[in-house]
Design goal:
Blueprint (H helix, E strand, L loop, with lengths): L2 H10 L13 H10 L11 H8 L3 E5 L26 E5 L4 E5 L3 E8 L2 E8 L2 H5 L6 E4 L8 H9 L1 E5 L1 H11 L3 E6 L6 H9 L2 H10 L1 H23 L5 E6 L8 H21 L3 E5 L18 E5 L9 H8 L4 E7 L10 H13 L7 E6 L8 H13 L4
Parallel strand pairs: 1-8, 8-9, 9-10, 10-11, 11-12, 12-13
Antiparallel strand pairs: 2-7, 3-4, 4-5, 5-6
Helix pairs in contact: 5-9
Length: about 400
């Protein structure tokens, strides 16, 4: 079986000839490039080529972020929206004046609306890049109070989603049989989740959600057509698997909030994706214990970037049982397991023994590193996991 066939079989619940193993390497590569410490065998390689060199499946979720990007792709990043040449659509702002400037560390966008100006300021330092951070952090948020809702609503009503199925097709071809090129949808699973994730400081969001719920709901209604347009473009590309939503955590997207504000959208997306003959992947990289009962009703097919003990409360076995027999887990190796300073050799070996002994038949499982392979990872440990995955036999 090819890596792609193996991963698709795992998602379908079909037997595989070995455990699929697809660690995320792009942020590792970005960090080491900035540090000037890329091992000779990986110099100049993109994500798919790095996977070839390691003999692993290519983790290609959303895009290859090792590729150079035009700073213009980040004009709308302060709204939680970025563009990339691998995405199946591009987002443009129409009929509102926009100015954009950038230097070595700062990205500034000014959008003039009838309700007033919206200033967005992002920052990315060399130190951030050296840690594998591929997108700048927000320094000035789009929303500071409910007074900003009107301007934000006007902006979202002027966003145009331009389908780019040919861009995704090129990404799909580049990855080929080396893995699954997962088409990128929205990181915010719903309009209100996008607001929480990107448009307002987290502490302020909780006050707005408690005190301005009706006004916030009116704003999300105005954002909904944009989300629908993204979903339309996503379902029309040639992807087998699509990405929608991520970065859930039982404290930040607490269970009642998740059930009310995220579950309906994930179910809506999963229904549309399934109608189009595709599978839905969502990025479940946080503390999942109290969210596990809420995941199956969402209808997604793959829980990606699953992070188990010792970085969260649940073991991989507990997560798999909580998700149920119809959901594929992609992840399961905590990033700290690859760091000798965090886990010594003896503890690492014991961890792997316990992990692989708990996998049962290994069905509906794609091994990966949550959230990504860290810059200081011991690649020999990565290779050992691959050897164990290749030799795995159901117990």
């Amino acid at each position: 079986m090819t890596h792609r066939e193996r991963m698709l079989s795992a998602i379908r619940g079909e037997p595989t000839d070995q455990l699929p193993w697809a660690p995320r390497m792009d942020l590792w590569s970005i960090a080491l490039r900035e540090r000037g410490t890329v091992p000779a065998e990986f110099v100049g390689l993109n994500t798919a080529e790095i996977s070839d060199a390691l003999g692993v499946a290519c983790h290609a979720v959303r895009a290859d972020y090792t590729l150079a990007r035009d700073p213009q792709d980040l004009v709308l990043r302060g709204l939680g929206i970025d563009n990339h040449g691998d995405y199946p659509f591009r987002v443009e702002l129409r009929d509102l004046p926009v100015s954009f400037s950038h230097d070595a560390e700062n990205y500034r966008t000014l959008i003039e609306t009838p309700a007033g100006p919206v200033n967005l300021h992002l920052k990315q330092t060399r130190e951030m890049t050296s840690e594998g951070i591929s997108l700048p952090f927000v320094k000035s948020y789009a929303i500071n109070s409910a007074d900003d809702f009107e301007a934000i609503g006007q902006i979202f009503e002027h966003l145009e989603v331009i389908p780019k199925p040919e861009n995704y097709a090129a990404f799909h071809d580049r990855v080929g049989d080396r893995g699954l090129a997962v088409a990128s949808g929205s990181v915010g699973a719903s309009p209100v989740h996008l607001i929480l994730h990107d448009l307002v400081a987290m502490d302020k969001f909780f006050y707005l959600y408690a005190d301005e719920r009706k006004a916030l709901s009116r704003l999300t209604d105005r954002m909904t057509p944009f989300f629908e347009a993204m979903l339309d473009a996503l379902t029309k590309c040639c992807a087998e698997v699509v990405f929608w939503g991520g970065n859930y955590d039982q404290d930040l997207t607490w269970p009642p909030f998740f059930k009310e504000e995220i579950t309906p959208w994930l179910k809506r997306v999963s229904d549309r994706v399934h109608e189009a003959g595709k599978y839905l992947l969502t990025h479940t990289d946080g503390e999942n214990k109290d969210l596990l009962p809420l995941y199956p009703p969402c209808g997604f097919d793959v829980a990606e970037s699953v992070c188990p003990k010792p970085m969260t409360q649940c073991s991989l076995d507990e997560v798999r049982k909580g998700l149920g027999s119809a959901t594929t887990v992609w992840g399961g190796i905590p990033a700290v397991a690859l760091l000798p300073d965090s886990m010594d050799d003896q503890t690492f070996e014991a961890y792997l023994e316990e992990l692989f002994a708990s996998l049962g038949a290994g069905d509906r499982l794609i091994l990966g590193v949550s959230d990504n392979v860290p810059p200081d990872a011991d690649l020999n440990r990565l290779r050992e996991i691959g050897q164990r995955a290749q030799a795995f036999q159901a117990r």
